[in-house]
Write a structure and sequence with these properties.
InterPro entries: Amidase_CS, Amidase_dom, AS_sf. Helix content is 40%, strand content 13%. With 549 residues, it is of the alpha/beta class. Helix 8 runs parallel beside helix 9.
Length: 549
């Protein structure tokens, strides 16, 4: 059931924002005992600060990967309450460092953890495959009785009447929800900033963005305030934060993971399928999430979902694995650290018997024209009205994607039919193009830059391309930007386009030094298991990530 819509706020938007931040601070104050808080005078790089603030026991727990936590919880080496206390503490520190949460849920989380410990004591077995695992949730995924703003001040009084379907499934599996994370105004940024909560920053450099729109998840998980979280993706919103923050993220194929009960849907958004998916500190965390949810057969209560079980995948034994490499899209050439990451990884793949194939892009500029025309089939009216209701100002990237986007127009029935036909024609053409290469998966950039400076993330094509095609994509860390190695551009210095020229101007080897570099592995529709299996095989062969490379 969608959240109930309320009347427009009667107080100034600044007062609503103040109330939102006071509510968040109030939920943090519920944590007992109170913990050491981060200093207000922070350096740009805060990724190592939690080690200075958390106690040794909490750090030993939050440093564990999801699969390690599950193993310890399932054998009672750790209690759910002990684990939850550690992650609540770390989430507060992450909030102080990056402004990544909208609400801490200590009472709810500790009550659930206590119930799980009692269940384990009585039954001598876990309640489900995620027993006691702390999970964070992007704010627009609805919780019964909790506000669901989706980044708009005017939505402050929107309160769902039941938990989103995905939360119901994860709860039954034993997950414990301990916090909700920040989202941007309009939900359509590769940045996370709103007038309600301000800007979420990157823990590797606070002058850079954590990504968006699941940027709160990205920053929180990078700082180990969570090990597995729920995000969403319609243009890169899971993959952008994962790459920017050096973690793992999966955009699944549409209609595999439940979407009933989230708090936001663009008018006509079925023209570009938006999906929920996981972000995690490990690849295994992504697999656990997907298998757990799909094994629950959510299509039995959400009929739009495809009734497709989770399938085991093994890499070919009778031939080499065949991986395509998209070096650039012929529109914007990625910055030097990304090009270097591609070179390093392809060299290691070839050294380990993987067949690497040069994959040419196919009309990626046309893909963006189709997408940008279908994102806002109402011409942005609904979003504009939601912003106008409260009188809040437009954030820079909201203005860019809606007001400054020449493709955003209110479409007539005939125009909508035309663009839908263009979408289907492009999907068919791309399938035929893919067939020419006969590849198992495609390796490509996640974006034209590592984590960008604030309000500059305006090139979506390296992620949105796969949303248009509804191809699954998994993002993983490869290395880190290094000013000594990446200072100079490789190869042809002539810009590919005006957008390429703009992107080159954003390159700053000093500012980007030391931030994560992620890449993306893409498969065809419903090959979610396949790309995760191939990435697992690659990681075993080449020992990713190359953090010192």
């Amino acid at each position: 059931m969608p959240p109930s819509r309320q009347k427009r706020p009667t107080q100034p938007w600044q007062e609503v924002a103040k109330a939102a931040q006071e509510h968040r601070d109030g939920t943090i104050a519920q944590l007992s005992p109170l913990i050491a808080r981060a200093p207000t005078n922070l350096p740009p790089r805060v990724i190592g600060i939690p080690e200075q603030l958390s106690d040794e026991r909490a750090l030993s727990i939050t440093s564990l990967l999801p699969e390690e936590l599950i193993a310890s919880l399932a054998t009672s080496r750790l209690s759910a309450v002990e684990v939850m206390c550690a992650f609540l503490q770390q989430a507060v520190i992450a909030q102080d460092l990056t402004n990544c949460i909208t609400e801490l849920l200590p009472r709810r989380a500790l009550q659930r953890a206590t119930e799980l410990d009692e269940y384990m004591q009585e039954h001598k077995r876990p309640i489900g495959p995620l027993h006691g695992l702390p999970m964070s949730v992007k704010e627009h995924v609805g919780f019964e009785g909790l506000r669901c703003t989706t980044g708009y001040v005017s939505h402050w009084d929107v309160i769902p009447k039941e938990d989103a379907h995905i939360l119901q499934v994860l709860h039954e599996a034993g997950a414990v929800f301990h916090c909700r994370t920040t989202v941007p105004q309009t939900m359509m940024h590769l940045e996370t900033d709103s007038n309600l909560y301000g800007v979420t920053t990157n823990p590797y450099n606070r002058n850079l963005t954590s990504g968006g729109s699941s940027g709160g998840e990205g920053a929180l998980i990078a700082l180990r305030g969570s090990c597995l979280g729920v995000g969403s993706d319609v243009g890169g919103s899971i993959r952008s934060p994962a790459a920017n923050c050096g973690i793992y993220g999966l955009k699944p194929t549409a209609f595999r993971i439940p979407t009933d009960g989230w708090g936001y849907m663009m008018a006509g958004a079925d023209t570009v399928e938006s999906v929920l998916g996981p972000l995690s500190t490990s690849l295994e965390g992504l697999k656990m999430f997907m298998k757990t949810v799909i094994d629950a057969e959510p299509w039995l209560s959400e009929p739009a979902l495809i009734p497709m079980p989770w399938r085991a995948y093994s890499v070919p034994q009778d031939r080499p694995l065949r991986i395509g490499v998209l070096w650039h899209d012929e529109i914007v050439r990625p910055h030097p650290p990304i090009a270097r990451a591609l070179r390093i990884l392809t060299q290691h793949l070839e050294a380990n018997g993987v067949e690497v194939v040069e994959f040419a892009p196919y009309l990626h500029d046309e893909a963006w024209a189709i997408l940008a025309s279908l994102y806002y089939t109402d011409g942005g009216e609904a979003d504009s009205e939601d912003i106008a209701k409260s009188g809040e100002p437009w954030r820079p990237l909201s203005k860019w994607i809606i007001k400054e986007n020449s493709c955003v127009k209110k479409l007539s029935v005939g125009e909508l039919a035309y663009w839908n036909e263009e979408r289907e024609a492009y999907r068919k053409e791309y399938a035929l193009h893919w067939n020419k290469y006969n590849i198992d998966a495609l390796l490509c950039p996640v974006g034209p830059s590592v984590a960008p400076k604030h309000n500059t993330a305006k090139y979506w094509n390296y992620t949105s391309q796969w949303n248009l095609l509804d191809y699954p994509g998994v993002v993983f860390p490869v290395c880190k930007a290094d000013k000594a190695i990446d200072a100079q551009w490789q190869g042809n210095s002539k810009p590919l386009s005006g957008k390429d020229e703009e992107n080159r101007k954003l390159w700053d080897p000093e500012e980007f030094h030391g931030v994560p570099v992620g890449l993306q592995l893409v498969g065809r529709r419903f090959e979610d298991e396949k790309i995760l299996g191939i990435l697992e095989h690659i990681k075993q062969k080449v020992k990713l990530p190359f953090l010192d490379s």
